[in-house]
Every structure is written in structure tokens, then in C-alpha cells.
Amino acid sequence: MSRSRIKCAACKKRILDHEPDLLLRDLDNGGQSRYFHTRCGDAAYAAAVDRPSFYRLTVRHVEEIAN
Ligand SMILES: [Zn+2]
Questions:
Q1: How far is the CA of 53 from the centre of ligand 1 (A)?
Q2: How many A from CA of 4 to the centre of ligand 1?
């Protein structure tokens, strides 16, 4: 499975397949998901702290899978 179209919502750059990312689900906005680099996670954390009941924050770690 490819997830090559994922972009970071903070810096707008692609999140590469081998990078772990932060998934921020905005439950107040139709369950829309945004992704962040872990290094850009401050923006995600800020949003999550601001609206804790509406955001679900998940840190995903990429498994080593041979293509
Ligand atoms: Zn980023």
C-alpha cells in the first residue's frame, strides 16, 4: 500500500514513506485527517490541546516492510 500523497499540514512538504508521522483526526470537521511530521508536531499538539475533545492524535511508526 502506498501513502505517498500524504503531506504535512504544518510545512506542506511530503511525508516520506519511511518517516513516522502524526495523524490528527479532526472529529469536529467531519473526521478529516491531517498529517504532520513528528518534527512539525508542535502545531498538531497545540491544536489538540486547544480542542482536546475533538482531536485524536496518533503517532504512527512505520514498520520496516520490504517492497
Ligand atoms: Zn512538516
A1: 24
A2: 14
Are 19 and 40 in contact by the 8 Å Cβ rule? The answer is no
Domain count, the chain: 1
Q: How far is CA 37 from CA 29, 58, 66, in A?
A: 21, 12, 22
User: How do residues 3-18 score in pLDDT, each as one tens digit?
Assistant: 557 899 889 999 888 8
Domain span at 4: 1-67
How many whole angstroms from 54 Cα to the centroid of ligand 1? Answer: 22
- For ligand 1, the distance from its centroid to the CA atom of residue 13, given in whole angstroms, is 6
Q: Please, what sign has the CA dihedral across residues 26, 31, 35, 39?
A: positive
Could you tell me if 14 and 4 are in contact, meaning their C-beta atoms sit under 8 angstroms apart? Answer: yes
To the question of pTM greater than 0.70 for the whole model, the response is no
